[in-house]
Amino acid sequence: MSALRRDPAARRWLVTGAGGMLGRDLQAALAGREVTALTRADLDVTDPAAVEAAVEGHDVVVNCAAWTAVDDAEAAEPAAFAANAVGPALLARACARAGARLVQPSTDYVFAGDATTPYAEDAPVAPRSAYGRTKAAGEWAVRAELPDGHYVVRTAWLYGAHGASFPRTMARLQGQRETLDVVDDQRGQPTWTRDLAERVVAMVDADAPAGTYHATASGETTWHGLAQRVFALLGADPERVRTTTSEAFVRPAPRPAYSVLGHEGWARAGLAPMRAWDEALDEAARTTDLLTPA
Predict the structure, then answer these.
(1) Does residue 127 form part of some domain?
(2) 36-71, pLDDT tens digit by residue?
(3) Dihedral sign (CA 40, 8, 270, 287)
(4) The domain spanning residue 126 has which CATH number?
(5) Hey, which residues are catalytic here?
(6) 260, 188 in Cβ contact below 8 A?
(7) In 3D, which of 159, 165, 147 has the Cα closest to residue 104?
(8) In sequence order, what are the beta bridge partners of 241?
(9) Is the pTM of this model over 0.90?
(10) Closest by Cα among 59, 52, 56, 12 to 36
């Protein structure tokens, strides 16, 4: 592992893509520390010289810059590859020169989504979409460029207070429609970006071993189950959410039917897995405007 300042509180952090949902929660989780927060407008992660200059002087880099428009990537895979693979490669190379660690968020989309038990961290990747392929390429690049100083952190079904998300959409539609049809044949783990941000900081502070970690909430549900939970939190009748299948919502990029990730990596690092998805959602609803109609 790369050499770092021994006192975690004295480490200098760089957050790229800092204007997004995770980037903003990371800044909150790092309050009181030395943090450089660069938005997409501040730093183009595909510019080698700019990346080199940005990383210099930092101990930890968290790369929240990414192409996340899953469907658009099907028609613009080269552009998605630049953001999701070339950018991480350049950051990892710069981290190697600077002696810094790199946290590279990744996704459940690197898997085929046809499993019936949670995907382990070392399960073979088999992406079925352009987005998944570009994120898998980013993982490979980071491991190759920074073998002893990387954390690939796979997550899924993200929501947060600072951006568009499925729970926020369900809260809005609850007030507009009598009933909603929501798919019940895709399973996953809704994950609060605040929990994810706090886990990333705790992992680095604990000097966890380099490698791949699955940072999703514990438990599992379907989109239908998540929508019903949102309705219940709003005091609405969950039975207004009706079940349907993925065939009713055909999109350019195939969605994984099974996105449940295993959490064995945390035990190996001596850390507990993240809390249950419904517990986190309940707190997010109480403490943020996540479910407040716009």
Answers:
(1) yes
(2) 999 999 999 999 999 999 999 999 999 999 999 999
(3) negative
(4) 3.40.50.720
(5) 131
(6) yes
(7) 147
(8) 180
(9) yes
(10) 12
Q: Is the pLDDT of residue 130 over 90?
A: yes
Domain that holds residue 13: 8-164+190-219+260-276
Smallest CA-to-CA distance from 99 within 138, 60, 49 is with: 60
Give me the number of domains the chain comprises: 1
> Is the confidence at residue 5, as pLDDT, over 90?
no
**Are the CB atoms for 188 and 156 separated by under 8 Å?**
yes
Q: What are phi and psi of 244, to 5 degrees?
A: -150, -175
Evaluate whether residue 39 is within a structural domain. yes
Residue 171 has pLDDT above 80, yes or no: yes
Confidence at 6, pLDDT banded by 50, 70, 90: confident
How many angstroms from the chain centroid is the CA of residue 101? 18
One-letter amino acid for residue 213 of the chain: Y
Paired residues of 12 in beta bridges? 34
- Say if residue 3's pLDDT is above 70: no
**Does some domain include residue 105?**
yes
Cα Rg of the chain (Å, integer) = 19
The structure tokens listed for 195 are 């929990």
Question: Distance of CA 88 to CAs 15, 54, 65, 152, 278, Å?
Answer: 13, 13, 9, 11, 32
Question: What is the residue whose two structure tokens read 């993200």?
Answer: 158
27 occurs within a structural domain: yes
- Three-state SS letters, the chain: CCCCCCCHHHCEEEEECCCCHHHHHHHHHCCCCEEEEECCCCCCCCCHHHHHHHHCCCCEEEECCCCCCCCHHHCCHHHHHHHHHHHHHHHHHHHHHHCCEEEEEEEHHHCCCCCCCCECCCCCCCCCCHHHHHHHHHHHHHHHHCCCCEEEEEECCEECCCCCCHHHHHHHHHCCCCCEEEECCCEECCEEHHHHHHHHHHHHHCCCCCEEEECCCECCEEHHHHHHHHHHHCCCCHHHEEEECHHHCCCCCCCCCECCECCHHHHHCCCCCCCEHHHHHHHHHHHCCCCCCC
